[in-house]
Specification:
It is built from five helices and four strands; from the N terminus they run αββββαααα. By secondary structure, it is an alpha+beta fold. Strands 1-2 form a two-stranded parallel sheet. A two-stranded antiparallel sheet has the order 3-4. A hairpin with a 2-residue loop joins strand 3 and strand 4. Helix 2 runs antiparallel to helix 3. The radius of gyration is 17 Å and the shape is flat.
């Protein structure tokens, strides 16, 4: 699962802000004080998050455009030959066949909505406290600890 938003949330940098992450963990962002967004790229203040691997490239190109200008961002896009042509229309839960979505939700490839990659409990996050024990569960509503 994409952990960028979870790292920012664990540091308290996304409290009350919008963010995105991989769809399997998107809803859990709300449990740590973040407003989840289904957008591929979210920029809220000084923080940018992306909703998966290819969305990470979208975010990088978006940031390149904001920092260096659209011409430079387009040059980077051309250099990395980023012109998506996926062989299947299964890149989101809205477009993937229901059986594929269910298979992934059930744990195929290790992505489930109960696996929280990193963070603080909602209670400690609300108080701005870091996780203090390696055995403490950092993941709201789950027994998963990484």
């Amino acid at each position: 699962m994409c952990t960028g938003a979870w790292l920012l949330a664990a540091a308290g940098l996304l409290d009350g802000r919008r963010a995105t992450t991989h769809w399997a963990g998107l809803d859990q962002l709300a449990e740590v004080g973040v407003t989840p967004s289904k957008e591929r790229v979210v920029i809220d203040g000084h923080h940018a998050t992306a909703a998966g691997v290819s969305a990470g490239i979208d975010m990088a190109l978006t940031l390149a455009g904001l920092i260096a200008g659209d011409d430079i961002a387009q040059e980077v896009q051309l250099i990395i030959e980023y012109a998506l042509e996926p062989p299947h229309d299964a890149g989101s839960v809205d477009s993937a066949p229901a059986a594929v979505v269910e298979s992934v939700r059930d744990g195929a490839v290790g992505l489930t909505s109960t696996q929280c990659p990193i963070g603080r409990t909602g209670e400690t996050a609300a108080r701005g406290e870091p996780r203090t024990s390696a055995s403490a569960n950092p993941c709201p509503s789950s027994g998963a600890v990484r």
